[in-house]
Amino acid sequence: MAPPQDPEISARLLAAAAQLRDEVGYDAVTMEAVAARAGVGKPALYRRWPTKAQLYFEISVAIGAPPPDPPDTGTLRGDLLPLVRLLHDSMAHLDRDAVGEQVGQMIKDPAFSRDVYERTFRPMIDQLMVIWDRAVARGEVRRDLDGWQAISSLASTIHWRTMVYGLDVDVEQLVDVLLDGVRPR
Predict the structure, then answer these.
(1) What is the DSSP string of 104-164?
(2) By CB count within 10 A, which of 149, 159, 163, 168 is most buried?
(3) For position 65, what pLDDT does the model report?
(4) What is the pLDDT of residue 67?
(5) At residue 2, does pLDDT exceed 60?
């Protein structure tokens, strides 16, 4: 079993990585420079985060705000729109180089992929599912549909269009398309 990691060293490494990114840009940062800036050996860095993608994912989680409580406007559309806008706006401002590297690392490393899912996407989808479940109870959506699949499809569409294609998303239209497909017949 590995010895516990010193949280002060972890904090120094994260701070050094964030500073370097701000100074020279994500692409120019090296793991060696991060370790040197933090005043620790490279093994201390690599034990915590084996790749630059994993290091910068940790930074994004550390500085990310928890998702807001889901709104309750009395309609699925009213509840979804602010959260979907927030998701879109947050993705539109992400560093595409860092996210591209992280997605590549997720494809290669299932454990990292699961960590990303559990710490970022799942909390968001879980929140959206609260909204979905209220809509089911109000009779706004068909009970036979898999809400998780519908909601995650919405989030995936925003992610793909925004991060992969670099396109803007008409959030209202996207929500309306989802709602047209899930309304009771």
Answers:
(1) HHHHH-HHHHHHHIIIIIHHHHHHHHHHHHHHHHHT-S-TTS-HHHHHHHHHHHHHIIIII
(2) 159
(3) 62
(4) 66
(5) no
Return the residue matching tokens 């992400």. 94
Residues 17, 37: Cα–Cα separation, whole Å: 8
CA-nearest of 134, 140, 123 to 183 is 140
- 32's enclosing H/E stretch is helix 31-38
* CA–CA distance, 45 with 157 (Å, rounded to integer): 34
The 10 Å Cβ neighbour count of residue 6 is 11
Triad 172, 173, 174: Cα angle to 5°: 90
b/e for 102-120, b at 16 or more Cβ within 10 A? bbebbeebeebeebbeeee
Q: For the segment 32-66, what is each residue's pLDDT rounded down to a tens digit?
A: 999 999 999 999 999 999 999 999 999 888 766 66
